[in-house]
Design a protein that fits this description.
The chain is 8% helix and 42% strand. Helix 1 runs antiparallel to helix 2. The protein has 803 residues and is mostly beta strands. The strands form 17 sheets. It has a six-stranded mixed β-sheet with strand order 27-33-40-41-32-28. Strands 34-35-38-37-36-39 form a six-stranded antiparallel β-barrel. A four-stranded antiparallel β-sheet has the order 6-16-8-13, with no helix packed on it. Strand 37 (543-551) and strand 38 form a beta hairpin.
Amino acid sequence: MTPIGGRKGGKGGGGSTRTPIEDPDNLLADSTAYVIDAVSEGEIAGWADEDFPAKCIYFDQTPLQNEDGSFNFEGVEYWLRTGTPDQEPVPGFSAVETEVNVGVEVEEALPVARTIAAADVDAIRIKIGLSALSTLNVENGDLTGATVTFAIDMQAGSAGWEEIGAYSITGKTTSGYQRSYRVELPEVRPVSIRVRRTMPDSDVSSIQDVIYFVSYTEIIDAKLCYPNTAYVALAVPAQAFGGRVPTRSYRLKGMKCWVPSNYDPETREYDDTSIWDGTFKLAFTDNPAFFTYTVFLEDRWGLGERIAPELVDKWRIYQIGKYCDELVDDGLGGLEPRFTMNGVMNTREAAYQVITQLSAAFRGVTYWGAGAVVPVQDAPSDPVKIVTNANVVDGAFNYAGTGLTARKTAVVASYRDKSDHFRVKAGIVFEDTDAIQRYGRRQADITLPFQTSRGGALRDAKWLVDTNTTQRETVNYQAGFDHAALRPGDKILISDKHRVGFRLGGRVLSISAHRRDIEVDAPVLLRAGETHTLLLANEVGEFREYAVAGSNAGDDDLATILTLQAQVPPTIKVGCVFVLTASDLPPRQFRAMSNTPEGHLFNIVALEDDPGKFARVEQGIRADDDAPFLLPDASPPAAPQNISVQVVWRDVPAGFVVTVGWERGGASPVARYRVDLTDADGIRTHIREVGTQAIDIPLLSAQTGAFAVHVAAENHLGVTSHFATKPFIVAKPASAEQQSAPLVAGAVNTYAMLCSSVAVQQGQTADGSTLCYEPGGTDRPAGTWQAMQIAEADVLALWYRIA
């Protein structure tokens, strides 16, 4: 066998490998995209950052300019037009362009043609694209450039095809390349354009020269200023974005609105040194009241053509606007305006829906009444009318409570997050643990399209839960012409003797000559130790308060004559309505929802109003949680406490029922309670889970001995507390018929009897209550077993019989 060997190569011997060479890409996109984005109706205030507008322009959610002044994209030019009627056109944007996608490969045997029929098109721009252009040397692996040739033909009307240009592209690219060619069009229509390959198609994989008819753009040459339209014009180099047009977004100060002439929108201050004269000026503001007013006035895009300016209650707009600008806690340790409006309205909606949505931004409604547009806001206000059984038809108030399902106890609020490009996202979760414990968890999902403040979204969520759970009652009644001027949103005071339990309202029978003694039509109650105030209404229903200095009340505290500390004016007449208030019993407050005339009467519907809701919603909020949701507490809740056990007898079905009650331990929220029972054999059985703090457990056997009940709390995450246990004893029955010893107060007396094979425990519990047999029967009880308290010196004999 011949061995195989080798030797080391010498100085000129052996072969060497060659690394293939790839030429660099030299076909780089040098086209520029010219884009016009209409951003708003005009006139707008301008860039959000007037000193550095490039920081307000975003491409694919990336700012054009960073906070440190550096640029993320080079070569971008931009212009802003604010939407004035006579604004100048943007230089370089002298045409209206509409791009039409084609995206078809052009082969030598299959040219690609398209037809333009529009008569106002002056020219087209044809875009030719290459996915790659290269030649691979199969011998040494070198990758170099290539050349492709093509032509563009035109057919005008019924004429034949005419070549208008022959072109070639030479170079190398592996990542795609596009080139545009402008073609002027004749006046004849239709016009067809054809792209034709003028060289054979490559039939080898080593040559990449496929061309595409990418698109064509119809061009209308004109100098357009787009009056009354705010827009941003951009010149974007294609190579900065890989040959594509990026998505764009902008931060802008929006539309200028009609604001009061004495108002500074930058500082939100009103010049109160003089009375406002009712005039307005144009300025940028995010106050929702003034934007809503602008919607009513604008005749081009608003309701100005249908509603005259004098029909809009501008005085209420002014009042609402001032309330919106008041500073409140922002939940982050600072202050912010109570209501602001930042967002986009870019869909066509019915006028009523738009006004309703805008009014909700300042927690109000807008309605048409008495031939005018009246905005109403739920804000602190004084009552305008007193109502008693004496000035309603038949003295009847009809009350209705809201359903349990309408009482929302948790809210998920979606708002525009300014830290995430103002996207609408669910960022606030609010839960009222006390309300959840009482009514159960009932969640409402709300969207706040004009809210950009996290603190504002939290206030809106708290408002919904608070008003749902505290303003639970409506009332409706009929009244006379003294209610004709009552408008939705007005606050009223109601004193209903059927609700209070005694009379505190009525009508005045007489007024003394010195106008301090008031005689009323029926006795009213003045309880000793309380201070009282008399509310008296004039002829038009307006009322004033007068402190009560004395009365003719006797030992029963009932009075018909009230002496006031001050004289009443002549506008207070005999027969007027009055309400007597006590320091511990004010009249109930309601807010009118509707006032519907019916003949000579008026049907009033009002909602219970709680003036404390404003402080509860706006004070002490926290909105600095980093998590997108406020997750429930994962720690175990506190165990129940103060467990009580009571045993009662029921006839059908015969047997004893153990009633167990307990109290919630601590303030942590509880979703349900788990209840177990251990019998005399030590066998522990799960009874069931309950949402209340009490349960009835039937004892289904005659077993006696030591029993125990166990109760644990469970939160919404399913985390359970440790069990709290309460033991109790079921004693053995006596062995013969006999009379028991007297029960002694304060001692533990344990006896039992057996009736119809059912064990009955007789004993005194820790709180002194005793379970006993009500005498009157023989073998079966004629009465019932019940808890009974043994007082001092009480003696009770218990007879029992063996079954």
